[in-house]
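Contributing: when you submit paired examples, paste them exactly as shown. First protein:
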Amino acid sequence: MTQFSVFQEELGLYKANKQLSEEGFSAESITAGDENLSYVTDEGVVTEGTIYDVIPSLKGSSLEGKMEIIKGELLINSQDMTEIKVAQSMGIEVNPYIIIDGELKSDGANLALMDSSGTLTIPDGVTKIGNGAFANLSGLKTIIIPGTVKEIGTNAFTNNADLTRVVLQEGIEIIGIAAFKECDNLTTIELPESLTSIGNRAFEECSKLNNIVIPSQITIIREETFYNCQNLSNIKLPENLQSINRNAFLTCTRLDNIYISKNVNNIDNSSFSRCENLTNIEIAEGNTKYSYSKENGMLVDLENNNILFISGEVLKNLTTFNIPEGITNFGTNINTYKNITKIIIPKSLTTISSAAIFPSSISSIEITDGNTNFVVENECLYNKDKTELIICYTKGSEATLAESLITIKSRAFRQAVNLENIDFDKNITTIEGEAFNFLNDKLQNVYIGAGVTNIDPIFKYNTYGTVTVDEANSNYSSENNEIYNKDKTELIGIYHDIQGSYTVRNSVIKIGDKAFHAKEKMTEVILPEGLKEIGASFQFCKGLTEIFIPNSVGKIASDAFKESTNLMHIRIDKEPNSIEGAPWGAISWDRAVEWLRPAE
């Protein structure tokens, strides 16, 4: 008992001295352990020392390594019940945080780590911040992560709207997938040189982040790492960088220059999509794979004859876009430039990635003599034998499709903005994803013929109207603008708006992938008893906050609730861990799942 009294006295003395010597010292902000000490003052965050600087008598005592300060209060980390009871009698509580093998798990107790100023400091002994540990937390303004933490897990701080500052100390090695996604008030973050990996979407939608230096050990900028960081104007890429992946800087609209080192050997043609102000790309001497011409605004992959980026300064002054002769593959997104109305395809071109890359304003496509890979007919672009519809750019209310047509490619009708009616009959078997998207808002009637065998569930993406499946179709059936398999045991897709609650019909035993994709106004879904399987069905359902899953369900896809960022409570009428993959993409991870039946 005497030891604990001494510890408390020394902590009190430390606080009193700091209040006298440091302006704006916050006693509540003190966090200290065996390897770190931090607190907040008017000058910022102090991060040096250990708990032994606060409580000198702890060093060498029987309680060395068992005490910690969190939010200015002394806690005990011990399994010894005698020690715990004595500590509690002195007003010292047991550390409530779940730390298993160094990983701070996602738990409601974690939220108490934030002090009244909105500062969060990670406890001593933590080597990994667990998946979703601090996702969806209101009021968090500053994060202090000591170098003892080696890994920041998936979704660790996703969707913290008040977060403005992150302090990452030297020693941190891994930032996980979507770790700081949608922290849309985060303005600055300094990445330590110890960092070796940054996960996909780590800073996606950090719309106020304006400056960042990538550490020297990073070799890959992964998919969508800085997607929609609209304020990012300055980024320094390291010499060791080798790869810039898909959509890495998509919609970084203030980014005006980028440096490509000699070691970069992979740049995706969507890496800088919609970077409308990017006008200067510097290619290091010694990099022979890429070239950039300020005159034509094109970043070109010389080995693969592929355009990777085109400057907005060039595109905004064009009405006709002429793909240069020699280019064999074209997948550069120019869809925001509605001044462009005509595309010229060169003799050399063999592939176009998707209709999605072209603006909705396209009203003419011309094919250069000698190109044997594409055909234009009735304001539609096809492959050479007219079995695949690549782009339908008619501005009329109906489209005339080739008799030989088999496959409707992804986004094929994106430019057909006035289309009202379409029949997928004849020889058509396949309709790919987002064949119609939100731009086709005049579309009223879609008829799915008897021969269609493969429909992507989001072939109509957030467009509504009547969807009818031919009764002779042996694979699909329709009812109330919804598509099911033939006997209505699997829900394929919903093509009407859902606001509020939706009840899945009793005959359904499987909800297919994307069935409720991006139904953002749906706030409740009632699942039938008898349902057996849930696919990747509820992605981007941002209106959902809670869902109840009946006992009959035996399988849930690992990403069933991906990007449903407000889903904080999954109640499941099963024994703990009786279905693999929990929490199935929910961003708050373990905190989100409540197993309603006791373990057997």
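Second protein:
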Amino acid sequence: MQTTFPQLLLNHATQRPADTAMREKEYGIWQAISWHDMAVLVEQLACGLHQAGLRQHDHMMVIGANRPRLYATMLAVQSLGAVPIALYQDAAALECVFPINNAEACFAFAEDQEQVDKLLEIREQCPQLAHIYFDDPRGLRNYDEPGLESLDDLVSQGQTFATQHSSFFKTAVNRVQPDDVAAMFFTSGTTGNPKGVVHTHDSLLNRARAGAEFDKLTHAEDVLAYLPPAWIGQNIFSYAQWLSCGYVVNCPEDASTVSIDLKEIGPTYYFAPPRVFEGMLTSVMIRMEDAGRFKRGMFHYFMDIAKRVGPTLMDGKTVGLADRVLYALGNAMVYGPLRNNLGFSRVRVAYTAGEAIGPDLFSFYRSIGINLKQLYGSTETAVFVCLQPDHEARADTVGVPCKGVEIKVADNGEVLVKSPGLLKGYFKNPEATAEVLTPDGWYHTSDAGFLDAHGHLKIIDRVKDVGRIKGGANDGAMFAPKYVENKLKFFQHIKEVVAYGDGREKVCVMINIDFDAVGNWAERRNLPYAGYTDLAQKPEVYQLIKECVEKVNADLSVDTLLAGSQVSRFLVLHKELDADDGELTRTNKVRRGFIADKYNVLIDALYGGKTSQFIETVVKFEDGRTGSVSATLAIDDAKTFTPVKAAA
């Protein structure tokens, strides 16, 4: 079945006009918008944009948080055969210049004053950007900029046009074809300028339907839309599948209220990158450490039972009567209240993707009765490549190929994919397109992996990142940095890790502590500190982190493939890695090469046997100012363990 985004909107508006399409929390109250009202708003916006000069194949930038009017604007743009391009709302102004100019965009939607200021700041560098429409008027009353107009005015103009030309909108929608370009997503640009990934209506909706069929999604689902609209994962779950299934998408009031809104909505279908699940677990552990002795003891007792029994029950297998009774008791006293506190009391399916999730983190959620599963995909594949069936969710795989997908593994271990959801190409970049798409339709994922005996795909790491230890006792051993990093990030005291070891005789890591978790830990021990940099260098904190590192080393020692990846030395960084400083992508992925160049002096110190190293780092503040942070960082050794296989 081929269709388009605006056609699906009209179908829902015709078949169930009064049903809720979206909810938005405003001033603490949830406001609902029906499918009929959404269709009317989209028609008015489309007519207004047509009057303003937006035409088929034009590009319009969209920058802001999840809001019904942002989604309506995207649908209006698509209704005209034009292409919406979402940008990350937390991106710095200069980061927007290349996408806007590359797309030759003349139109932009900006949610509020912050985003308007950003676009006005770079307007001289983007002279073609003639029309900027803002949604939230607060703070913009006295702005007098050519082409700057409120969305309310655009709606009003469109309403007048729609009244005079009653058939225009439906005619425009019917003109849009499934193989027309529907959206463009810019990659994070870890090694250069971002690339515009071009997708058609069919490539996005085909994958949305495949995922919906796999998990039996219906119009009865509730979803919380809280991730950046510029990320294709958010776009698929809260836009493409929203229109495919017709379920309700809920938009939180603010980034700071997401956890509260999550509990109020109680979504049935949930998606988050591992970082979000890590943050939730950290907050749980902090609260437990602050709890009384009895409550803390009860929590740990029943969590031990959950760890032993929960995953088995989630996989649909049987356990002994005593374990069933204990787990049921734990469910009443600990797991149920915990799920409710997290906002997961109604979750039927929860997915994580974007990067690998630590096995312990994955098991934790499944052990307390949350059907957390992994999926595998990318911007270029419209997300859905592999999905984990219920009762077959494992921490070390990313599932089986879903409907329409073929997978093969190249001689160098790279995973190749053929799918109806593949990108049409990279915008204005045929060379890059030719590098990832073969003439016979296979996409190079750049991920190293293999299909196991059960047909599940295992991803080891990025092909370019998988390396070998060179020299020393582990000469020739495989080194997978992401695997090591994720194992360390399971600990609530560790927020981010960057591991190095390829071509070297040992593995060394740089660690970011979780300021909230470690700060709470320090306060309970009456350990004073004057901020992140001071806390990070406390000897007591180093000992805490050392214990985490050595626990990971003990786990790695029994892994025959990665026993050589045990961490020999580590340091705790004096600042948090930050996307504004170029150290993370906007999707919070580590830019390992950039960090290696920026902190080269620290890497040399780690491998040079030093016990400390002074460093001064330039940082960028939220208001655009720059400053510097300096510290003398301690460098510590960690105990490594003889591989079990070798010992045997």
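If you have annotations for the second protein, write them as plain sentences, like these:
The radius of gyration is 25 Å.
The chain has a mean pLDDT of 93.
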